[in-house]
Fold these 3 entries.
Entry 1:
Amino acid sequence: MRAAELLKESGELKHKVRTVSDLVNHLATREEGDSNYSLLLGSGASVTSGIRTASNLIKVWKADLYARLAEGSGNDHPDEASIDAFFSSQCASWFNPANPYSSLFEKRYDLPSQRRRFIEKEVDGRLPSIGYAYLTAIMDAGFINTVFTTNFDDLLNEAFYHFSNKRPIHCAHDSSVHSISITSKRPKIIKLHGDYLFDDIKSTLRETESLEQNIRDKMIELCKEYGLIVLGYSGSDRSVMDVLDFLIKQENYLKNGIYWCLRPDDEVNHQLLNLLWKDRVYPVIIEGFDEFFAEAHSVLVSSYLDVENNIKQSKVRKTIEEIVKDRPKLSANSVISRDIESIKQINVRSDIGKFIDDPDSDVSGLSIYDIRNLMEVDSYLKKGELDKAGRVCEDFKSSAIEQKSVSSYIRKLIEISNKQGNSAAAIRWCSELLGLDQFDVGSHLLMARFKHNPSEKYEYFNGLVKNVCHSPKLYFEAARSGFKLLKMEYKKSVVSLDDLISHVERSLDLEPSMANGAWSLKYDLLSYKEKIELEKNLVEPFVDELYKRFPCSINAHRIKGGFLASKSDYKELASVVESLRSMHSCSSISRRTSIDLCILNLVDRVVVEEGDHHSLSILESFFESHKVEKESAAYYIAKANYEIGLKKDIDEAKLYFDKAKSVYDFEDVIAELFEFDVALASIRGDVEGFGSVDFKFYLDVLESSKHNLMEDYYYNVRFSILVKASEFSDAESCLDKAYDNGLSLDDYIMNKTYLYLKTSEYERCVLFSEEHEKILGEMEDEAKFPIIVNREFAKKKLGKKIDQTALMNIVANSGKKSVKICALRILGREGEAKKIARSKIKCNGLNFAHYKSWPVLEGSFLDEMNPYE
């Protein structure tokens, strides 16, 4: 069974599963600074350091041995099932399915020296991953004192050498382990199966049947007063499992229990499952070795990994410092003097690097002088002296010789040009950058940022994928830019929807992980194809297969949840959200933050309808009982909308709105902040200290963020602000620019007709709509319905005959009740319209504020519907 099955409500060990937070809290609780737990590490701890796991090697060895032993069987291309069947039926005399690693290793390599050389080659040159840096710091702080490991590598010892001033007691021999004192404060590393440097490593079936007597006795002794945390170990060899099984049966041993860490996809074998059933043994679902110790470190030691301080405290660094100080005055020797000066320069380079503020800055390979020069340019940027920064950077670039140096200065000049709003200069610098390496994908992505015309941008990417065809990112960008162009032009477009889907498929072939944004884009493309070309059953099978293929992926949950929200299937959406919350409880801090953002995205798409308890429960469970890892501006504004919309609590909503405006990332949700501010003013007016909306504040913030925003988004948000500020002429100009830079045609027509209603230009509204009559016929229903409403209301205001058939079609077929309300009112069915409006406002009070700004619902329509009076 998979470890993830333990988490299920029906899982047989659900009641025993503990969270990462539970385990870290146990580690933190100690008496007089002494550790309460030892650690047992298996091969899973070394995966991110580049060492293959036992399961990886088993597959390789099986394939090799099958090719040798099954020669002439007629099956030259066997699948995994065929190979497994062969070993079970034909190799029973030597192959042990309960311990395939050891039996295959012995069969593959005859002699101990051969096995040692294989392991030496496997671990040679591998460096500790960041998880080992976290573990070293935790051991330095005394939370763990002893580590048992079945691994042959030396990664933990290496991590102590790099990151700590302490030197652990390191034992890999049965004869020497008896001398280790249980009371010693020095960290202890005990290799249960030996060290790869010696031929007597334990790796074969007979060798792993039992531990050497002294090792076994020491493990029992060290486990008497402590608990044990097991991580990265499958429990597949009897030598260790027999000892653990013996110890857990003794009341005086492992008093703090065994906490067995498992990733969701880990296979739980029969022997391990039996152990997990025993008292004082608990499974803990983790994301991985590095992620577990990252979270443990953040709670036990520090919120960040102080590598710099560790390096300064290391013996290497202290030795270098002593050499540089030259207390014995050895620099009198010319050779020693030269080398001491060289060492000083290396230290200066290291110290300068920490002052580079930009986390994306790549200073590797740059000279000290280049780094100092870039720091100087950054100092002018921070002061807002863009012109001076540009001049100084150009001077530095002109004197640079190395390509790496030239590239760094050009990238900085591109950044400066972007902040200046000088696209022409940015493109010129991008061209120069591409001259250094015409196949560099990052340089092409930079160039594309400054191709604001959607058609030009698509042609650029479409041309690139024919020449730089190895990049999944370029195929993704070609599809994304093409999709934007298609939605601008509809059937007039030269873009083929099938070509875009082909680009996405190619991107996913090259990079099939869920980190590839092409999965989300494929969902969007298939949804569009269903709606526009009326092809059925494209999206649901894709979403279901994706969710099944990546059951632990946050993005797969987001796509599945988005699909369910689009169908208003809130019962199933609640299950997806609950699945995310289950993942949240056993994830690392950074992953919990990502899960929170995903749930927030899904919650934002929930529309509460009267009588639908599923939609309401999703919102209530998130905002009332879910604890987010990081309270961002996005969370605060969502909470403000919840408080004012569903709970009708204006004071509490205002509190969260103010919090959203005060946090560091408020610029990311400036549009949402503005909409809430307008709604609040609409509900309460200028009384009780709420005041009017500060339009200038929002315009200024938007302008300061312009260089980081997509052009169509920037102009469309600016349009919304200017319309509310009654700056209609400037608003229309912004809307036109938004369309020129990629705003979809349906949004453009809808916003344009809405603007003409706001300015009482009813004739222009009708004419503009009729000019796009053919396009309306190509649009999906929900996109064109608001445009038809605007057009028919303009006709009614002009005294013209309205299209009752079109309006009744909206009433009958629109899934959006707010649009139905408008259609009903134009048709003169005031009572029906008011009934639906009251229901919508009852469910969410913000609807009252939104309806007040709609020309179609002007006059006395909303009288006596204010839920805040």
Entry 2:
Amino acid sequence: MKVVEENKEIHLSIKDVIFASSDRRFYTSSIPLRIRASKGTDVHVAFQDKRSQSEKNFQKEAAVKIKLEVMDWKFIISGRADVIFEKQGKLIIEEIKSVTNLEKFDLSSRIAEEYRQQLLMYGHYYKQLGREIVCRLVLVDIYSEDTEIIEIEPQDLTNYIQQQCQVILTSWKQNLKQRDLLKKRAKTIQFPFSDHRPNQKEIIEKISEILSNQGRLMLLAPSGLGKTIGTLYPALKYSLRHNKRLFIVTSKTTQQNIYRETLQIFAKKKGQFSSIILTAKEKMCVNDAFICEKSFCPFIENYENAPLDEITSEVSRKQVVDARIIRKIAKKHTVCPFELSLDYSLECDVIVGDYNYVFHPFIKLKRYFDQPYDDMVLIVDEAHNLPSRAMTYYSPEITLKSITDTIESLRALNLPKKVERKGLDLYQKVNKYLLALIKEYPDIPNRKIVLTKFDKKFFRTAVKDSDRFVMWYVQAYIDRMGYQPGGKDRNLEFTMNLRNFYLILKESDLPEYSELLYLKEGKMKILCKSAAHKLEYQLQGFNSVIMQSATLFPMEYFQKMLGFPESAVPLQFNSPYAQQNRLYLLMPNISTKYEYRRDSYEPIAALICDSVALKYGNYLAFFPSFKYLKAVEQEIEKKSLSVELLVQDRNMSERKRREYLKKLQSPDKKYLLLGVHGGIFSEGVDFTGDMAIGAFIIGPGLPAYSLEQEMMKNYFDFKWQKGFEYAYRNPGITKVIQSAGRVFRTFTDRGFVILIGQRFITPFYKDILPQDWLIERPDDIIGRISSFWNDKSPKIITKSNETEEKYEKPNKKKSSKKKYPKTVDLFDLMEKL
């Protein structure tokens, strides 16, 4: 609906008129929405094609426009009739609707009434033109494709349309008045503390300016500046004042918890707003089993007829609503907590959730993003994580194992042989296609990855077969089990993945994509090398966007990778923590490059053990890979270590992670934690106080060399002439900064960070480290750490006062006995080979 206030005009659809006085809700279905929509479209097209062959005067999608005046306002109502044709002097109007069970479809239901009203609205238009009309409602079963045509008596809907338009106009005017009242709530949002942190006032002022100009901002703010409050405070105030909705998306649950706590601070200060923290459906489920089907889940079954207004009113008694509150109220009223959270979010000023809800092409919230959303303000927290996450959205894959597992799952269900055969034919066809591709490359050494092209025509046919099979499968499953398949059903998951694969494949000729065949793994994958173009498109629709992180280094790189316009305003700050509490050391006489790593294991282990022995406390060491970590771990175990050892496993569970963090909080014992760059301990965790007083950063954390990474490098060379920087260096340094940031989380934290590796002394790497890291390169690292703990202050050699020549030429006086020759980079070596 569009309101042109200066002309006193309201433009709306026929459905807007019909739904004006009804409670519209969003429902889940056992049939994936995209397949259901696709099948509905197929039903429409098939029936229209049938009519085009049998009727000479056939016309499809006939434009309908009804104009009238109500209370001095002009209403323009638009729609399209599915089918019209003339027969025996009468105009036949047909509205096609697909249903999931034609035999059980209730013609007295609310949805059936809505179907009739839509048809009669089309009939009203043609009747006003003086035509003699026949109205027919065409119901088609999406499973059996059986059709029933019901003739509906035409009606003069003049009074009905006027009444509905009056409801719409009155509601709009009331909402206008309500919005004016709600704007006053902005005055209740006050800065919650008596003082601002360093630079926090500047952050608030700059964001306020950006929001007033509907702009884009990139905020690089290290821990300690209070960027969460610094961005949330002006954004919340602006959103309330201008009737906007504030969306906040994060990459981790821990960050969502921080926003929940921050919103609660504003609520305690008498701020008037409503907010919700959205949680994934499976985590919200209160049923005995995670099966979203009415006959199996009473919470879904009851949702359609539950008094939603009363329930959401109860939810609204809390200003900051999270999963715990939603579950409690949902259980009380026996309604689905996930659906309740989504429906209640429509009434909220602030919505906090995962990146997926905004950026995932198949998961994003359609109720918000399938229509204009220029009334929304977006904050992206820890924005350095978004480019890599977005690339995974557009990198679908299909494996031989996934096909085999799905075949086994289908056979285990004992469905009717006809249905089972349809599914097996589909899966085996895809399996055969993948095996045939692999056989085309018998001479590839070590059965590596090859660049190929997938057959779009094959996958288009496969998806059509898959959609048809899903219809039969769901019906057969219901007949066999008595309920619909759940959200984790392997057959539905595979068919949806097949569809997603094809949708991405349709645009894979763009340079952002590569089609890869993994011979050893038996896998076909579409690799998205950059999702910047996708992010740019999604971000354009917002009123304003704030990207924030402590590690948006370098800003130009992230501006491009995030799809941000060049006009985006950069805002960067140094750490507010006292320099005398932060010791940054560099050990350049060890090479961490791949071909020289074996020689580095013992010296690194010795440095770690000697450093840890100087002061009893917790320490962290982050490595480029688990293999590197394990090798150094073996060397550490040969030495005397003053603290106990904790080691991150490759597939560590969340429970184990929490156990380790709990140990680090214990005052009784101290530990050395070995982890990997970019892992579960290197970001998104606050090691406050004595939880970590030192960190060892082994190497710049570059992504491992691979064909995928090299393709990204080539793409970035083509796109921005910065292949190695964007594919390897920048992601690696981001991990370094994140890892180092674990030590300094509050103003009282005191500790050291040691950068280990020759590459850290070169301008290529050191120039993109934070400017306020005053990095020293002493001859005696252990002595320097000892003096730091003893509060001695020798002359500090820093990046700012050390000459370029000194950085480029390592000091000849080494504390280590071993000397390492100058080496070529692994990646240069691979290219030469």
Entry 3:
Amino acid sequence: MGTGGKTAHQAYDVTPTTPGPDGGTGPAETAAQAAQIPAELQALTASFTDGDLDPADIAGFQAAAAKVAAALDQYGDGSDELKAALGDAHAQQLAWLQQLTPQQLQQLAAAQGFQHPELVGLSGKQPHPLVHWLDPFYPADITSKQKIQEVAQARYAALAAGETINGLTLADLTPPPAPDDGTWTASLADVVGLQAQIATTLADLPYAKWGMSVEQLTAVDTGLTAVIDAENKLATASCPDDPHTLAVAQAAAAHSISQALNGKVKTGAIPQLREAAVASGMLTAEQAAVLGNKELIAAARRSTPQGEAGALLQTADERVGQVADRQQAATAINELLGGPLKPKDPASWDAAGTAKLAELATLIGKGYQAEAAINLWHGQAGVPLQKLSTVGAADCATAFRQWAKAQPVGELRAAAAALGLDNAGSGTRAQVQNYIAGQWDTAIDTAALQSAVTAKATAPKPTPAAGGAAPTAAPAGVNGAANAPASPAAKPKAAGTAKAAGTGKAAAPIVAKSAGWVAQHADLVAALKHAAASNSGLPARQDDKVVAGWDFGKGTSGSHLGGTHSKSLHTGPDGKPWMFKSDSSGGARAAAESDAARVFAAAGLPAVPVYRATVAGKNGSVQPLVTQADHFPASPKSWGQADADAIVRYHVAAWAVSNHDGHAANLLRTPAGGMLAIDLGQAYKFCDSDKLSMSYNPVGSTITHTLYQAHQSGSLPLGVKVNPAAAHPVLAAIEKIPDSQWRAMLHDTAHTGAKKGVSWAPAMRQRAAKTHGIPADKVSTAQVAEAFLDAAVDRKKGLRQAFTTFFGGELKLPGASTLLKGGQ
């Protein structure tokens, strides 16, 4: 299929038009630079801009596309000239694809293996979905490309079931290729018989609802098992007599069953289907035991799209691991306590004693973390897993404190030190008891305890002044921590979260001695030093594909780091320490944290880079650990002006990604005295309902609230203030990011979150419904993701006005209006 003439390439002249040295039009690069561009990249660009679409063009496109992966691998990290060449090739490829008609795109996609290409792009909106699907500069297995194919397959199934879509019927389509992967040979009569069996069973299948008798629920389970068994037989058949009829029958059955089962099995147990799924090899018994009814049905059907089925198996494996962690922890706790788990009884701790206390606290924490993860999915209808009978974490902590009162404080300090409390010897009995209990009770702020203990241990000893007079204390924030004598550093210890902070002392905060006529100069110097100090502790970002391919090995438990998510520590192939956090949300949380770290970096703010990864078969994220870092001090009494400015800049980026979890434990003091953001896993969690206000604080006190409250109460150190102009560099950096790039940076957050139904998904579904003028239940997952990206762009565009209003209105800071003038 051609266009009828050699004119397409004339629509986009690719000759550079940058003014040359003489002021006229000339080449944008020198001959020397052009000589550095590999010949295959020049040929690649030319092949994308040459001629009509005919069989030769299809072959030419496929040949050029095949070079892309090799070119990206070879030159993607090369010189600026090479990267520019890749960018040019990508631009020319998009231009070539975008000037094709829908029919030409369909022809090209069909040649690349796309099924039913005529069923996407029906809205007429540009760019056509097949432009993205055909784009070889993006991997073939990314979620967005899979989704385009899934949409086409679902629409074909609806047509096969007798429906019409956009005026099309099944007769309007090109017959699909005959299935060639059947495991048994069916006659045409077999196919017709299975179709009839499916239709009859579906018609007789009742809705499962509350109040049904055991016999009625059993009838639902029996019918459900029968219809899925018949569908699976049909899905695995081959029919040499009439392969086209078989293909239509398979698609029609898949659609009819999906429509009929929608809402029919919301409650009640379905043990027969679970047993059948295990017997068929679709699931293991352990996997079947942790899936809800809806998940089990999808996992048991062979017509479920491969990507969705794979994600369900991954989810099941993650849950199986959580159950195993919970049981192992419970068993070990019972052994240490000398009998059944009774942490509510203070006397039950006697069997463990202080010698086993650190081990026991770690195991209790691991058990509660696993239980918390299980609680997120256990409530789904039909999950047969029995909950573990345990007392609450707070009750367990209370019992422990009662028992600990009678134990030697030295032994408690030793246990706390083994659990990671630096300078434990300086801690009071209450501090070390609470630090130990904080290993499982997340209501206890172990980071604040660490800060208090460290402050006591490192406080300068007062020395008698001449003549016996007491020394005069220097004003905090002037000579304070910056001039305190440094204590000897202990051995370095990696730190990726605040609870993993190293025993090596981070440098004191960099404080400007703002007094007299040198104030502005001193503040500028301090700010520059603070920026350099913050970035000095920042691990360099690796290529995402490289990190994704690394083998991190088994690793060791990171449960002592605290938090609600399972962690493990690993030595990466680079020889450096890394932390892995598993993601029970199916990758949504890992995507949000990784994308948020990218936003921070793009805004010019130091943040530990985060990568999505699979470690030991579990989905999650990995991040390098910062060595010799310490907790960022929670008390503003030790902050200098550079710290206050850094917190303001951090607030801009945190609001941009809707992260409201910025407490002191999620910030590090680098060895050079800077500030480094970590743990952005709650990014966008509250984006559907949050507001930029002192009254909004969904997860407790944050470092930004502490700063502004100290300003309002007049408790900031002498010479330290909240400066609205400090926000300008971050605002300017984000404003320079094109909307398209912003959407691309947040693509994984949007699409993974929409697919997994995270907290913001319902609100974005309503937004999409309003945008498209359709009922909310008709909104697709892709439309939910696009609504999220629309909202993210809206927030990006409104950042400067939002902070001008916040600083000038709620905080009543002088100079807030200068933000609207570029911070001047």
